[in-house]
């Protein structure tokens, strides 16, 4: 007598040919899985997001999913998140905004202090001690928040904030000239190539090999009856554009054969549309980072030229000019030297740290495919 093993409840009964009967076969439980079987990739488990035992997660896929799911995946939103995450960069950004606000509101801040930058206060200096400021720390008092200049008695607070206005105005204007000219030349050289690239590249080499500092000193020494701020802005801007042009040219060469640029070219877009709609957004990240790094160099250049006596002329205040005048008093009145030096140091340091952070964040835009 032959006995048949009972069929478990979770298995389908067999048909006449020994195969499972399709009419009575039940679909397997979605939550069950046979031992040793692998779950198909991309299929979510019913119990949640817990991976199957023994499976290895894909880090690249997880990163891409988190980047796609996370709010704000654009470069600018990524930059904001990174800037909020770095305490040193937040402090630098706050200092930069403070200096910009101080430069914009310099006339009102000077009036708030009660003194104009060129107003003498003979009561704040001692005529019997060579015009040394009265009081400790260079004459710091409720009337003069940062003290006064020796001999003249001019208020240092009013002169420092107006010096910030002059320095940042020259730095921002010269940087704008450098960035616009360098970006235009770099995009044209990298995109069109050929003779255009050759001419612009040789012009970059010629400008970079020229002794720009000597020419600036000579030009500013010879020019007499001109606006010194306009002249300094123009001269500094003329010699600064090749650096930006080289960076933009390299980025353009890597972008002009990308798929989206070729698609725009095949679709009938002209060079102007391709340059402004496809190439320029691709190089904007490095250009913005480079721009932020240019500003401290421009501030230092203006201060150096004013220190040498060929920059901004008195009575217009300038940080470099104030430092040059304070050299004669650094033993008797060190605060006259320290105050403008600290303002210059903080401005250059804040812009440099902010530029380094923006370069680390935004320079990856050129790698877009």
Report what the structure shows:
This protein is mostly helical. It contains 13 helices and two strands. Strands 1-2 form a two-stranded antiparallel sheet.
What's the gist of this structure?
This protein has 369 residues and is an all-alpha fold. The chain has helices at 59-69, 75-85, 87-104, 106-113, 156-192, 194-209, 212-222, 228-238, 241-255, 259-266, 271-307, 319-326, 334-362; strands spanning 125-126, 132-133.
Write the layout of secondary structure elements.
Elements: H1 59-69, H2 75-85, H3 87-104, H4 106-113, E1 125-126, E2 132-133, H5 156-192, H6 194-209, H7 212-222, H8 228-238, H9 241-255, H10 259-266, H11 271-307, H12 319-326, H13 334-362
Antiparallel strand pairs: 1-2
Helix pairs in contact: 2-13, 3-5, 3-13, 4-5, 5-6, 5-8, 5-9, 5-11, 6-9, 7-8, 9-11, 10-11, 11-12, 11-13, 12-13
Low-pLDDT parts are 1-73, 365-369
Q: Given the helix and strand composition, which structural class is it?
A: mainly alpha
Main sheet properties: 2 strands, antiparallel
SS elements, strand count: 2
* Chain-averaged pLDDT: 77
Strand arrangement within the widest β-sheet reads 1-2
- Quaternary class: single chain
Helix content: 55-70%
Distance between the termini: 75 Å
Q: What coarse outline follows from CA principal-axis ratios? A: elongated
Q: Helix-strand pattern, N to C? A: HHHHEEHHHHHHHHH
Radius of gyration: 34 Å
Query: Given the structure, what is the number of helices?
Result: 13
Strand percentage lies at under 5%
